[in-house]
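Step 1: inspect the first sequence and its C-alpha cells.
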Amino acid sequence: MTKILYIALKYDYGDPKRGFGFEHYNFYDSLVNMGNEVVYFPFDEAMINYGKEKMNELLLETARKENPDLCFFFLFGDEIKKETVKKISSEFLTFNWFADDHWRFYNFSRHWASCFTWAGTTDSEAPEKYNRIGIKNVIKTQWACNHFIYKPLGGEKRHDVSFVGQPHGNRPQIIEKLRKAGINVKCWGKGWPAGRISQDEMIKIFSESRINLNLTKSSKDNLIKSSAKIFLSGRSLKINPPKTWIDNFRSMQAKKREQIKGRTFEIPGCGGFMITGKADNIGEYYKENEEIVLYKNTEDLINKIKYYLKAEKEREEIAEKGYKRTLKEHTYEKRFQDIFRAIGVSGYSDL
C-alpha cells in the first residue's frame, strides 16, 4: 500500500466556520478511497492550534516519523515556509498541485515550484513558462471530479436552470439578463439571497436541474481595486515590497484568461446537463454539443437555454455522454494515477 503524507487546507479557505473545503472533499477523499494509506496534515488546523512556526516544525517531524512514499502538497499561500519544503524535498519525494497558474504563476507559483521534486499545473501555457525560467519538474494536469462523492442521484427535475457559485465578476449581470428574458434561474452560494448550501445539497441540485450553468467569468475587479492589489497586501493593507509590483501587475493582467474549474467536471460527473462558458483548452476534455454545451455571450446563452429546455431528449443524451466521458477520463483517481506513475511513486509504476 502506498503511503502518502497529504499536506493541504482542511477547511474552506482555512476557516472552520465555513466547513470542509474543496481540497478536503476532492483531493483528500479521493486519495483515501483510492486505497492509499493517507497521513493527513491539515496545515490550517495546525496553524490555528499551534501557530505558523510550530506548525512548520510539526510538518517536518511528521514527514520524518511517517517516512511516506510521497508528500503531496496543495499550497494556499506562504503558510508553509520554503525552507521547510526544501528540507522535506531533500529527504522525500514531493509534489505540489499549483492551482490558478493562469494568474498566480507570476506572483506565486514560479517562486515555489523549484522547492518541490515535482509540480503540477492546470494551465496549458504554464509548462512553457516554467521551462523558460529553468524549472523542468512540471506536469500538466487538470481539475476533475471526485466520483466517490459526485454521483447521479436520479429523481425528478425540480429546477429549470441552476447556478451554484459566488456572484463574482459579471455573474450578477448575466443572471439578471436571463431573468429578464423570462428564464427561471435559481442561484446558490455565498452572496446570493439563497445563501450557501452543503456539499450534499449541491450534488442534489446538479442532478435535479434540467440545465446547470457554469459561468466562467469570475474575476472582474474594477480598475481601482485591481490596481490597489498591485501595491497593497490583502486586508492588512500593508505595502507590498517594490520588487513584487511587476509580478503583481502581470498576475492582474493574466486574470483576463478564462480557466477551467472543478465545476466543469463535477456537473457532468453527477449526470447533469451543463452549459458553460469557454475556457482554456476545454475542447481537449469534452466534445462541444455532444458532451457539454458552450456559450459565446449572454445572448447566445439565453438562446441555448430556451432551446435545451424544450429539447429534452437531446439534453439527456448530451448529459449521459458527458457523464460517461467524465467517469472514463476525468476523475481525480485517474488524474492522480497518471501523476504518480509519471513521477515514480511506489505502487503506481505498473498501472
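Step 2: inspect the second sequence and its C-alpha cells, then contrast the two.
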Amino acid sequence: MGWTVAIGIDTHRDSHVAVALDRLAGARGSLAVSADAKGYLLLWRWAQELGEPAFAIEGTGSYGAGLARFLVSAGAEVYECERPRRAERRRGKSDLIDATLAAGRLLQDRSLPRVRGGGEREDLRLLLLERRGAVRARTAALNQLQAVVVTAPEALRSRLRGLSGQQLARVASRLRTAEEGAVIAGVLRRLGRRVRELGRELDELDSELEAIVIRLVPELLEESGVGPVCAAQLVVSSGDPTRMASEASFAALAGTSPVQASSGLKQRHRLNRGGDRQLNRALHVIALNRVRWHAQTAAYNQKLIASGKSPREARRCVKRMLARYFHRRLQMIPALDLTP
C-alpha cells in the first residue's frame, strides 16, 4: 500500500460523509460535505492534510459517481465499495458507521476493485440504458396497438387483420379519422406513430452503439454470434477486465456459475439467478447464435445433450463456457484498460 490513510465515504444525493482511518484502523477524523464541486474540493484537501489518502466509495455508479470522477481526475486512488451487508449492521446504521465500514474494508481487503473507467465505456452504458427503455416502450406500444385492433370495428379490423409489428404500425399510423370509429382510428394512428418513432430512435441508438464498438473493440465483433449490443454489454459489465480475479469470478458476475441443486442420489445444478442480468442476457443471445452458426459450439451443445442433459441444461453449460472464453478474450484487448 502506497497510501497511509483510508478514507471511507458514504454517499447520498445532497451530501457525502467521510471517515478517515490510519493503517492500524485508528480514527483520524470525519467530515460531511455537500455533493457538489465545492464539497469535493473540500474533502480532497481535508484528506491530503491527513497523509497520503486512498478512497473507498459507496455507490460509485449512482450518488458517488461525481465524487469518484473528481478524485480520479485529481490523481487519487479510488476503490468501489459495496454497501454494508446485513450482518455488518449489528452496531446500527448511520452515515458515520457506514463510512467507517467502507474505510475498514479498504484496510482489510486489498482486492477491492478500482472504479470502473469512464469515457467511451460510460457512453456505452448510457446508450444501453436508453436503448432498454426504448425497447420496453416500443414493446408496450405494440402490445397496446394489437389489443386495440382486436376490439376495433370490423371495417378497421379487416384492414389490419394479419398484420403485426412494424407493418401493423405503418398501416395504423396512416389511418384517417373520418373512417368508421373516429376515436378508435385516432388511437390506432397515434399508437402506430409512437411505435414507428421509437423504432427510429432505436435505429439511431444502434448506429451510435455500433460506431463506438467498432472504434473501441472491433475484435469482439469478429466473434461469431456477437453483435454491437452484446459487445457493448460485455465491455460495460466487465469495465476493466483485470477487475476479475479469475474466469470463475467473471462467470459469477454474469450469473452463469453453476448452483448446486442436488438431493439424495440425484446430482444436478440449477439456474443461477444472481449476477449482472444484462450481461447474462448478452451471453444468452450469443449462446443461441453460436449454437446455430458456430460449428465448435454446436458440437459441444450436441455432446452435452447426448450425455443426458436437457436442452436448457446444455445451454447453461454453453453460457458457462462462453463466460470462460470471453473472460480471456476481454483481457487480451488493450483498449479495455479503462481504469485510472
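Step 3: confirm your contrast with the notes below.
The chain has three domains: 5-108, 120-216, 223-336. The chain has a mean pLDDT of 87.
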